[in-house]
Fold these 3 entries.
Entry 1:
Amino acid sequence: MDQITKHLMEEFASQNSLTKLAEDKLFEHFAAYVATSDHLSDSLDTTDVVVGSGGDCAIDAITFIVNGVAVTDPAEISDLAATNKYVDASIVIVQAERSSSFDAAKIGSIGFGIADFFSESSQLPQNNDIKDAKIVADALFKQAGLFTRGNPVCFVYYVTTGKWLNDPNLLTRRDAAKSDIEGLGLFREVRFDCLGADQVQALYRKTKNAVSRQIVFERKLTIPAIAGVDQAYMGVLAASEYLKLITQDNGEIASSLFHDNVRHWMEWNSVNSDIRQTLLDTAQQHLFPILNNGITIVAQRINPVGDRFVIEDYQIVNGCQTSHVLFACREQLAMNLYVPVKILATKNEGIRNSVIRATNRQTEITDDQFFALEDFPKKLESYFPTFEAQYRLYYERRPRQYASENVEKVRIINMPTLVRAYASIYREFPHRTTKNYKGLLKEVGNEIFGKDHVLSAYYAAAFAHYRLDYLFRNNHLAAKLRPARYHILLAARLIHFPEPPAKPNSHEMNRNAEELMKILRDEDKSKELFAKAAEVVESLAQGNLNRDHIRTEPFTDSLLKHYGRKVRT
């Protein structure tokens, strides 16, 4: 392995608490991270997707991305399907070899292994991780009736530390393997890429940078100076230039750009269908700028040089629906089609939030939908890094918020992780972390993330998750217990505080959180606590750690009963 790739892999290991892994296994995690991050806006926990060992169907890592979210449980797919009313999926498969060259036979085995994995009657032996991945795959294809944009896309990556030179023999083998996978009839598109050291290094560096694009913005007006706004422009932008802003290098739409948009893509409802009809009607296309309400982009920085604009670290805060329709119709757009846009640069969160509120009022938006922009998440963001370095965590309000900063990735806690950890420990709902996560989200703003809740409880929940995750990553706890991780979090709290949780805005809740943190700060005591919690959970499971058995309300009730609590009615 060359020195540059080795250095970047070691940096990745340090930031993700994977330093104790053997080099061959670490390279699988590293390859999975760089290959998958290009398709996923949120951070990726590679311990959830690396499946390589004996009986792996020539698959070292497999990630299922459904509606922009990496899923590891069939229940998550059902939840997303019920919430969004559509399923748009990608599957990213990685085979990683430290070899300094690409092997034709290996390419053939990758194609054969993948084809066997997705077949209805697999012939190759499968390890437990592959079997679990197969269950997720089957659950995904059961949602075929909601594949309104077409079947999933399959991305295959063969990663080595060598140099890909488009060798004719290797190209022939790769194309044959790709054809085998296409022959399954499951995917609307199959891509098979071979990544060498140069590509791996470039992809890793890309994960550390905020999004940046250059466009030509000719037809614009400069908005007069506004306090708190660095720059502001409005006008019409060529559709071809706008598509540069929302399209990733791999050709997919950049879903992370719409994180601040309070309404997600609503599929082909009547409004979006009307937009599409206008765009596809050659006699109507030229009317688009006066028929559409326009798109609003808020950036951290805008660097204009004449008509050339470099826009950095930006979000599309209004225009999610229009953007998705433009992307879907991109092959049919006329060269002279223009999109009405407003682009502004500000670092003032108050102005940013006001813009989002104002530009999203054309349809009714509830206060709950705006909650992510309110004070409580900002308080968490400020509160988490105030602790000493060894106990410090970071709350991530936006995808890849800390990408360009030298922060250990395992110390970054995003909203889904925090909601699940807090709900498990202090709401006593570990069974709802996957099977009914959308139900937990309905509690945001009230029972979870309440405006007067004590911050220490959220920090304690996040730190407990961080400690437990470390034990799994470094094999101090058996991987078979991972499906029960949220029940282990609850059990750890019950060992010391078996009583029902205190009110979330009370001094008692703050005291309890501080007491739990005293234990969690001590690495040895923390390890002992989670070992006891895992032992209790495994004992109650009676050896059945299947996720369908563990992640249920009756199992949660059995855990509460073990600590003298009454079963909830």
Entry 2:
Amino acid sequence: MRGAEAMIQTLLQAGVEVCFTNPGTSEMHFVAALDQYPQMRAVLTLFEGVASGAADGYARMRGQPAATLLHLGCGLGNALANLHNARKARSPIINIVGEHATYHVPLNAQLQSDIATVARNVSSWVRTVDSVQNIGSDVAEACAVSMATPHAIATLIVPADTTWAPGAEAVSSTSVQVPACPDSGRISDIARLLQSGARTTLLLGGRALQEPYLSRMAVIAEQTGCSLLTEVFPARLSRGAGLPPVPRLAYFAEMATVQLSGIEHLVRVDCPAPVSFFAYPGKKSELVPEGCTLHTLVSEDEGIDTAIQELEQILGCMHHEPMRTVLARPKRPRGKLTAEKVCKAIGALLPEHAIIVDEAQTSGVMLPFYTASAPAHDLLTLTGGAIGQGLPVAVGAAIACPNRPVLALVGDGAAMYTPQALWTMVREQLNITNIVFNNASYAILNVELQRVGAAGGQKARDQLRIDSPALDFVQLGRSMGVHSQRAETAEELIRALEFCLANPGPHLIEAIVPPALAGIKLRLLPHLLRSLSRIPLPVARMIKDRIAP
């Protein structure tokens, strides 16, 4: 058996059934071997950042790894931004990165680079295959590492000669590491804390945001009187009708501080401690309030089921049911289109069991409010903050869950990072409705320019405008075969969205909207955020809920 064949057989035996590819010369034997294995779905992408983002979306929805096939260090480098997002999401991914043949590497050819150094930025495990005899076992170990707790990215660098040489063997997947058991004494201490009546919040992330753990944590909160929050950007959050309502921690640190104010104890559940997204002059980066004690119920490398079960047993709430959200849709919007009306229309029309990939940035700030009581759905967010995730993650989510409709909500700037994903959507005939919020601006950066206190003039403002030349997403989508249309009124958007949801995709709707924060609102925002710490807490919370519900 040749090395390439052993690689694919080993991947399949480990349950890896999809490979997102952007191959080059060094990967040609792997490409050729795909024809022998119809069980392996190979999905071509036109940019490596689409391959890595798609693998992330697939992993979030399936809970299993996909593979990527990338060409040398340059190809891996092109994939890094969305691998960074995947690392923050704790998505299991196996990167297969072709390398020059072992005897060619010392010649320092034009594409020669230090692939391992590039890979270490985003990978928990990096290895270079040293012989065709070891190629099967190396792939098996990469699969096991990716599925350990926490899930991880494993990168295997494969010299070309190890793929074409004979003498390889497929290897059954090695045993996946068993998650560490949480400390029982620590769990008992947290149970006593929850029963004490102290002002306590459970901060949920990762696995705790999906069923059945989400409902079990909601029961614990209801039985003990504590409050719940989710991390700012969840990898996957189950929400909507029939599920417990859990508010998200705000992106703006000043608003997150309002949410956390007055808490005496903050208990982490499968997530890190909250910190500000960026550093700002004169402001704290750590968001745990002064006088608040930070605790850990379950860390990212521990078994969450064991931790929650022990806590339930101590509290005596094993068989309780939580309060669940009742279905209630907003009314359909009317008139001139705004970003808020787009979010309202989504809440009004969202189908059952949809998957929303949210990279709408400032345009999507009202999305949580208008979809809170919509039919049950999963929300995938921008975990690592590297834009260009939305369209590729939608590709992976649609392949992982072919019977569920996917809505990808992206800002116009973010959409231009990875528009090649539209081509893959058409090639694979994926049921995705893409809504591009076209406000002709890097609106989030205009907000940040104000928040950091940088006094920008015309040249600075020009770096944040993308209206000259104007972007036409309808033409862009149609050029790649995507059914595309433009909406400038709420009525046009409703008609377009109804059509897209009634006819399997892919589709693209270009929503022409003004920036959600502009003019006087944009200039006042930094002053308003600074004032939150100086006004009565109930008023501050009311303001926070109005601006970012």
Entry 3:
Amino acid sequence: MERRFNITGFCNPQKHYMVMLDDRLRKIKETYVDNGDYFVINRGRQYGKTTTLKALAKYLEEDYIVFSLDFQKFATASFENEAAFSKAFVQKLSIALRNLKSENMEKAMELLSGLKANDLNISMMELFDCLSNICGISPRPVVLMIDEVDSASNNQVFIDFLAQLRGFYLEREDVPIFHSVILAGVYDIKNLKLKLRPETEHLYNSPWNIAADFDIDMSFSSAQIMSMLEEYEEDYHTGMSTAKMAEEIYQYTSGYPVLVSAICKFIDEKTQKAWSGAGVEEAVKKILTDHSPLFESMIRHLAEYPFMKQMFQAILFQGKEFSYNPDTKEINLSHMFGYAVNRSGKVQIANRIFEMRLYNYFLSEDELSSGIGTLAQRDKNYFIRDGRLDMDMTLKKFVEYFTDIYSGNDDRFIEKHGRKIFLMFLRPIINGTGNYYIEAQTRDARRTDVIVDYLGEQFIVELKIWYGDEYNKRGEAQLSEYLDYYRKDRGYMLSFNFNRNKKTGLREIRTGGKTIVEAVV
């Protein structure tokens, strides 16, 4: 069977091209499991949690007995009360034991069968007494893994289950119980809205305070992506530069597992482009318009948590900085969902694809009421000539339209919304053919660099707030250096100038051997 790239369900190295997990599994075993830790692997959707658990179960089987369960396979009725839960747990564990390749577990099956044969309701205590007996007779330490613990959230029975785990954990020097417990899901257990305490307390209290912090990076590095591509190249001999392709993919995804696989799958199966930068760009364009569970969750969470939405808008359009504070609910949730990361103590969008998807979503919300976007769509033929984007004309028309529509607004409005207005103007011009993204390292309250890619041709546009001639000259020098990095001789600068005596329009500047077209509004 030919291997392929996979974006649904867990990955199997016999069927799928995937990043090798050996280093990750070794770290989890040595750092957490061998030390007897109870911990939670909580990462965003489609981050490789299930794949990691399945690989880890196999990796541990020489030294441990591993009980692997999935709460998603429990019926909703299984969480109605402790008897229903205990019965379902026994049934699922019996199946797991039958599939377990381990010696001397017949007695464990007898213990479980004894519980199942009992017509009376099984209490949570009886369940844990049985589990303790099983751990006591096991030939090796027992590790319990439970995937999709989110399925049991907001549920008192699950609270009771965690409380029992905690109680036995605290007594494990005297009473046999699991050597290590691993729970996996999107939510950190401490953040589940569990019905254990009064409304004002339950968000901050959990019976899972015994858990060790799980601090292993589950994203893919450029080197890991390259190793996956090298396996593909051994099979297909495309002639690609695996190092260059891996770096291209990493620049868009920051190693978010499902996005990495989605780009590779599209290039392999759907595009006519070779394994090249153009192929990556075409794949990204497709991902940005796909309906996927990952992005559906993102949009739903933005609606559920308005502050998260406001924070992302302020970061993207105004260059505002937010200190990373895990005690702030929405910041913590954005990190937990995988949409944002902590970089140098600041909240940043996790990867370029998320940024682009968020830009498109926020701009679409205002598109119908955007006069400047309507004009750009109407006059699109002005800007596309012989299949090429005319950026000089694009900026010239933007200055005209902006002056006509927004000149009556105050400085504060322009400073807050100017960059968003430009992107609303740009989007219908390149939509469906080109892409644009923002260079995160240049995005702040004063400056933002937009990289526009249209049919393989790149344009560097610096958007900046006017803070005087001296600051402007420094900006020109910075843009010149940036053009060197991109090996471009021509760049663009859009200045939002609040000087009442300003001269609007376009002018060309020569600096550092480069030509800069500056548009002033």
